[in-house]
Write a structure and sequence with these properties.
- The chain is an alpha/beta fold.
- It folds into two domains: about 180 residues, 3-Layer(aba) Sandwich (D-Maltodextrin-Binding Protein, domain 2); about 140 residues, Periplasmic binding protein-like II (D-Maltodextrin-Binding Protein, domain 2).
- Helices cover about 40% and strands about 15% of the residues.
- A six-stranded mixed β-sheet has the order 2-1-3-10-4-11, sandwiched between helices. Strands 8-5-9 form a three-stranded antiparallel β-sheet.
- The chain is globular and about 60 Å long.
Length: about 350
């Protein structure tokens, strides 16, 4: 009997909380911004920047709490957000742009439906690059097609590994992936130490902030741009230029469409619509906030916002890809993961 009473009370309280206006809810509930990577990389930088400024743009001016949940290239955070985090608008997360499309390529460990997340916004779109350390023997992408290039990655589902596998199969590179680095900051250090030759996928924004001198000082060789559309200020060819046929080009375009997402923020499914709307409106105001923009500029973080609905539309288009494109993409990852020289 006592258990039934407690259950009824809990249900009543939950219902009351869901009935609150966004202002009333956020006035009494902190908002947690969960970063699905380790500290030190671009995702962490954007996550913490948003956390510092978002509160004043939300109804009720909630306290913002930032925390990191690295693991499996961002998959741990996505699974937590979808299955475990409260569905009341008190939790949002930023995680790797590769994660929403991971189920198309390899659903191992995936416990979410990407189209059911409430996509809020991304502060920017982006391209990723393939690069080698400046003193290495890899000066152009063709060098990585001729000899084994050792690169670091966090997990099989992360861009740092998945993009390497895709390139191995679709354009003929010979990347050897070393797993287990918690995040970009960790394998960047390994590259500096000479333990790795470079990276098969790193966001360009990593080189517009604290590591800008890696480009301006020619500490690295930029070999390739990974995106559907390249940046004119990056002196490297676009990956789609190396597609061997039309099907492979379409696969590359589908896989790299995620670059539009760049640094996606999402809320769990089931959050009341008015709180999702409040989150989206808060982010829209945030991206016009002079203090936010000034701090982003000081940190060399670009602000070119992408709305939540556009993120969802991009994902929906990818999930509607023809079966032959999906099959080729999956085969490319599986075959590209085969160690160089294996049969």
């Amino acid at each position: 009997m006592l258990r039934l009473v407690l259950s009824l009370i809990a249900a009543l309280l939950a219902g009351t909380a869901r009935a609150q206006t966004p202002a009333a809810f956020y006035a009494t509930h902190p908002l947690t911004v969960m970063v699905g990577t380790s500290a030190g990389g671009a995702y962490d930088a954007y996550g913490r920047l948003v956390a510092r400024h978002l509160g004043k743009h939300m109804p009720g001016n909630p306290q913002i709490v930032s925390q990191n949940m690295p693991g499996a290239g961002g998959l741990a955070a996505a699974n937590f957000l979808y299955n475990t985090a409260p569905k009341d608008g008190s939790y949002i997360s930023i995680f790797s742009r590769s994660i929403p499309l991971q189920p198309i390529i390899d659903a191992t460990g995936v416990k979410f439906d990407a189209l059911k997340f409430n996509w809020i916004a991304s502060p920017a779109n982006d391209v990723s690059i393939v690069f080698s350390w400046g003193s290495s023997k890899f000066r152009k992408i063709q060098d990585a097609m001729e000899r084994e290039m050792i690169i670091g990655a966090s997990a099989a589902g992360a861009d740092s590994a998945l993009f390497a596998y895709v390139q191995n199969n679709l354009i003929g590179t010979k990347f050897k992936v070393v797993m287990g680095y918690p995040g970009a900051a960790d394998y960047f250090l390994a590259i500096e130490r000479g333990e790795l030759d470079g990276s098969a996928s790193s966001s360009w924004s990593n080189f517009t902030g604290p590591r800008a001198d890696w480009v301006t000082g020619k500490k690295i060789n930029v070999l390739l741009q990974l995106a559907s559309e390249g940046r004119p200020d990056v002196d490297a060819p676009l990956v789609t230029q190396f597609a061997r046929n039309d099907l492979d080009r379409r696969v590359l375009e589908m896989i790299f469409s995620r670059q539009l997402l760049a640094y996606p923020f999402a809320a769990p499914p089931g959050v009341p619509e008015e709180r999702v709307a409040a989150l989206r409106a808060g982010f829209a105001e945030l991206f016009r906030d002079p203090d936010f923009l000034a701090e982003a500029q000081r940190a060399s973080l670009e602000v070119k916002p992408v709305e939540g609905e556009r993120i969802r539309a991009t994902l929906a288009a990818a999930y509607a890809s023809p079966p032959e494109v999906v099959a080729r993409a999956r085969a490319a990852v599986e075959q590209g993961a085969t160690p160089v020289g294996s049969k």
